[in-house]
Task: inverse folding
């Protein structure tokens, strides 16, 4: 589909769908165009894209991340998906609105246009057809080898992360540094979309289920003791006392939290 869409002369629907030069739109653009409930986008993606047994990643859709600004002015990474024209049409078929019909018609025309670019091999010489077949075979083999190499590399990276986690020595590495390193690694899982705060919250919930404790209360008491010991303590020093520092300084909580993190590493960093 290369050069199928001239992005300099796009129609209104192509602009609305954010169609690129390869005729691909994104899940977010298509969802907005279909005027579906904004609050159900993540659920819609899960059921229609990532967990769709008839959709194949890197064939029908390509996963990517975008930076979005939070209400507080920060930035968070959100997951989105590039959709082929064929797959976008299939997703549009599920709708029964005027917008869905418009999208279906557009992607149908796009597919027809793509077919016009396909070479009629029956008109080629036998030698040319054989050469094209050989090139396609080599290309498929190369792509499959690349896919396998990438998969192996991902597995090796995950295995290394797990090995590093379980080989941690409290004597030669600061506990909080180790915990933050693991939590950051877990945040790379698609479930969290690099939302470090969500990972920490889950780890604290898991800790609470194992050892019923009120971390917020413990943090406040730790800050109170710090103020009693040093009335001149700065606000920055006081704010540095958080749930993780409380856990790290508690001989009862620390080993339990270490187990929680290791369990999460296994759950989210190993296929």
Result:
């Amino acid at each position: 589909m290369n050069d199928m869409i001239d992005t300099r002369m796009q129609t209104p629907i192509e602009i609305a769908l954010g169609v690129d030069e390869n005729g691909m739109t994104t899940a977010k653009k298509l969802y907005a165009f279909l005027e579906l409930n904004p609050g159900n986008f993540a659920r819609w993606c899960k059921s229609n894209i990532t967990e769709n047994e008839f959709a194949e990643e890197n064939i029908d859709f390509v996963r990517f991340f975008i930076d979005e600004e939070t209400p507080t002015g920060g930035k968070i990474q959100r997951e989105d998906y590039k959709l082929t024209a064929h797959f976008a049409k299939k997703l549009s078929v599920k709708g029964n609105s005027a917008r869905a019909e418009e999208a279906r018609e557009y992607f149908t025309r796009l597919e027809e246009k793509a077919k016009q670019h396909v070479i009629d091999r029956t008109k080629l010489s036998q030698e040319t057809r054989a050469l094209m077949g050989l090139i396609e075979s080599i290309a498929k083999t190369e792509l499959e080898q690349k896919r396998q190499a990438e998969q192996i590399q991902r597995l090796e990276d995950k295995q290394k992360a797990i090995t590093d986690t379980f080989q941690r020595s409290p004597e030669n590495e600061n506990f909080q540094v180790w915990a933050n390193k693991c939590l950051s690694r877990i945040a790379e899982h698609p479930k969290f979309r690099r939302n470090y705060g969500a990972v920490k919250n889950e780890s604290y919930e898991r800790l609470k289920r194992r050892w019923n404790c009120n971390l917020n209360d413990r943090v406040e008491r730790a800050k109170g003791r710090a103020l009693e010991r040093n009335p001149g303590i700065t606000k920055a020093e006081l704010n540095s006392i958080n749930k993780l520092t409380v856990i790290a300084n508690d001989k009862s909580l620390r080993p339990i939290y270490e187990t929680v993190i290791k369990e999460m590493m296994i759950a989210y960093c190993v296929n």
